[in-house]
Amino acid sequence: MNAYFASVEQASNPFLRGKPIAVGGGTGGKRTIVAACSYEAKARGIKNAMTAWDARKICPDLIMVSGNMDKYIYTSSEIIKIFREYTDRVEVFSIDECFLDVTDTEERFGGAVQIARQIKQKIRERFHLTCSIGISFNKLLAKLAGELKKPDGLMTIRPEDIPEKLKDIEVSKLCGVGRKLEKYLGELGVKTFGDLNRYPREKLVKRFGMACGEGLYCMGQGKDNSQVSSNYDEEAKSMGHSYTLPKATDDIDEVKGYLLRLSEQVGRRLRRDHYKGNVVHLSLGFEDFNFWGKQKKIEDHLDDGYEIYKIAERILGAFRDRRARFRFVGVSVSNLTHNLDQISLFEKNERKKKILKAVDEINDRYGEFVIERLAILDTVLHGKVGMVDSRTYNVI
Amino acid sequence: MEFVCSKKDLQSGVSIVERIVSTRSTLPIVGNILFEAARSGLKLSANNLEVGIEVVVPAKTIKEGSTLIPAKTLGEVVNKLPDSETTFKLKEKGVVNINYKKSNINIHGLPADEFPQLPHIKEGKTFSLEAKLFAEMIEHTIFASSNSEDKHVLNGVLLEVGKQDSSNIRMVATDGYRLAKRAEKVAGLEAGANVIIPARALNEVLRILQADPEGQVKITASSDRISFKHKEVYLVSRLIQGQFPDYKQVIPKSSETRVSVDTQALLSAAERAAIIAAQSANIIKLEVRAGQLKLLATAPDVGNVEEVLEVETKGKEKAQAAFNVRLLTDALKVIEAEKVSLELGETLNPGLIRPVGGPDYIYIVMPIRTQEVAA
User: Which residues pair with A156 in a beta bridge?
Assistant: First the structure.
């Protein structure tokens, strides 16, 4: 997808179209970071991961939009449904990237290019979004082809295009070559795909070791044997949420506040997807970048946020360092069972399930955490959903 | 302190008390066993502050006295002693000399006076039961109690003494998903107890009674403690304070479908089904239809099982419900009767198991709401 978060925002709000916008975790505080920006903003020099403060200095009319992760995830899942009309082999690579293996199905639809055109059209019609599609005979080159024409590109790389057509492409465009690797390759004089293609295998292995060197050599030859692994339907192994505190604290009660809120979020997600789990994991991060984590297995499978919190709080009780300054809190639930509801003997417990269901229904309809525990009101996380402020959307 | 004791007597005494010794307590002294040599014999005691046990074993006391010996070391030593007379002698600086045949071991002991005394209940109700019967009542109920720290009152077994229906003593345990209740009519039993006994203490009582099921066990209960005296063994435990759930409310008054089935056949079938069900959250489906009881389990990656049993059906001829198979086998394992009555109602109503022809035992298990059932 092209400038995905920003494009989704522009698609859902006509007033933002054609304007430089940036999506972040707020609407302009000093700490806000640009998570994504529109092509209009990119043209003005805005880059991802800039602070909102710096971005505004370059582009004073930049519109900061508070990100809405739920919306992006939802849109992604709807787009993936379109892909699945063409093949069952869909590998979700990130929130806005997928691999499709159409080897067995392309004939039916008139070839891979035809499929790509249809997908682009459907996404444009339904979501007002553009995407770039790369077609090739392996994942490495398909991804490269997708990177080469942006926005709204469609490109095919054929075996005979190697190396001639690709020789001037920078190595950093290749999937798997990050900034560090780019630097090391640069030191060897390898700056383009053509350079890498000609570079002797032995020298790569000598410089980068067997695994990495061999990998780079294959990359240079345009080879990639990895399969498109359909991970779309895979069952969840665990569910968790974490939060990095705006400021380190030594106040254990403050940490508990975050923990309660995160546990409620985990519970909500478990219930939404009909999971329950009986292993609760707590992780803590500290100012000095150390981490501490512990898990506890319990008798019952849980999906009630408060019950999850109670276990997490007990684990927290085992953390003894009273001088610690907390910077990060995370809670997750694993050993999940799907669609399983052991009915309780006692009406009280069944009533609790009904209350949770009612709360979920209200929150489904009127917005996340419209109803929440009073204890959460005291925490910084109050009113927040995922990375953003809930009150900026879901308004009826 | 000095006494002579056979390895056999020593070992049986130590094995009774050592199980409750807590080696990870904040009070390290409870990691010891108290030895008290008197004219009447040798008394061994352990106390983890929740439960205390003492037992008197035959020994020839040469010199009266007492000492504490670390339970872990002592237990290992006693197990490995040769089959002979052993002499224990307290020497200077708290060293305990253990002498057998021509060899000896010295262990560092501690002075006995720091050991927390085992409480003896002064004011309480006392009654006696046949050891064999009490063991059976514990065995029928204890497995249904909960291990979860959150469900404090359910970590024990309710003991009620007093008339209700045709019984005058009852034991009940539940973990919130299943409930086991055993009732009995015992001649000469007077009313007046309603206590929750920690399952951990009852487990020890059960072990002691099963090792020697003859005779009577004397039970004394106060508002916060309960003690059990069986021959030479005395066990005292704290009670769980709190309100046990009203179990009478959850016992179904009637069932729509009742099937009578061979206990062992049902247990074997359930255990086979459990092998498959283990890979799918232990869920099995029970289906009653046309004089047959079917046990079904499916695990996507493993396979499936269909167990069919011929049964006698009373009431509505068709019924089905899904259960956690472990909850079913737990009860079937402790029922001695040849046949059980399995009773089912609507899909989401509780299932019921009771032995045909007595004793007065009822086991209730709640079903699982599966996606299939919900649809």
Answer: A135
Q: Please count the residue pairs, one from chain A and one from chain B, whose beta carbons lie less than 8 angstroms apart.
A: 50
Amino acid at B10: L
On whether any CB of chain A is under 8 Å from the CB of B252, the answer is no
Q: What is the C-alpha to C-alpha distance for residues B115 and B33, in angstroms, rounded to an integer?
A: 9
Give me the pLDDT at residue B375, please. 37
Model confidence at A158: pLDDT above 70: yes
- Which structural domain range is residue A63 located in? 4-67
Element of type H or E holding A219 = helix A201-220
A175 and A110 within one domain? no
Q: Is the dihedral of CA B1, B4, B7, B13 positive or negative?
A: negative
Per-residue pLDDT at B234: 96
ipTM value of the model? Answer: 0.82
Contact at CB, A343 and B146, closer than 8 angstroms: no
Q: Does some domain include residue A102?
A: yes
- Kindly state whether residues A58 and A92 are assigned to the same domain: no
Q: Is residue A92 one of the residues assigned to a domain?
A: yes
Higher pLDDT, A10 or B67: B67
Tell me, yes or no, if B148 comes closer than 8 A to chain A by beta carbon. Answer: yes
Q: What CATH code is carried by the domain that includes residue A116?
A: 3.30.70.270
Least reliable range by pLDDT among A215-229, B51-65, B104-118, B243-257: A215-229
**In Å, how far is A103's CA from the nearest CA of chain B?**
27
Nearest CA in chain A to B364: A345
Least confident of A24-33, A70-79, A297-306, B118-127: A24-33
Asked whether residue A129 falls in the same domain as residue A243, the answer is: no
Spot the catalytic one: A91, A97, A182, A264.
A97
Question: Which residues of chain A make contact with B369, given a CB cutoff of 8 A?
Answer: 340-343
Per-residue pLDDT at B255: 86
The answer to whether residue A222 is domain-embedded is no
A249 plus A368 within the same structural domain: yes
Q: What is the pTM of this model?
A: 0.69
Are residues A27 and A133 located together in one domain of the fold? no
pLDDT surpassing 70 at residue B372: no
Average pLDDT in the A188-200 region?
86
Which residues of A fall within a CB distance of 8 Å from B368? 340-343
Nearest CA in chain B to A310: B150
The reply to whether A97 belongs to the active site is: yes
Q: Looking at beta carbons, which residues of chain B come within 8 Å of A277?
A: none
The b-or-e profile of A22-48 (16+ CB within 10 A means b, else e) is bbbbbeeeeebbbbbbbbbbbebebeb
For the cut 80, the answer to whether the pLDDT of residue B332 exceeds it is yes
A144 with A129, same domain: the answer is yes
Does residue B368 carry a pLDDT above 70?
yes
For residue B177, pLDDT over 80 is answered with yes
At A205, the pLDDT band (50, 70, 90 cuts) reads confident
Interface test with B, best of A301, A303, A339 (most B CBs within 10 A): A339
In a domain, A37, yes or no: yes
Residues A30 and A175 in one domain: no
Contact across the interface for B177 and A314, Cβ inside 8 Å: no
Question: What percentage of chain A carries pLDDT values higher than 70?
Answer: 91
Residue A219 has pLDDT above 80, yes or no: yes
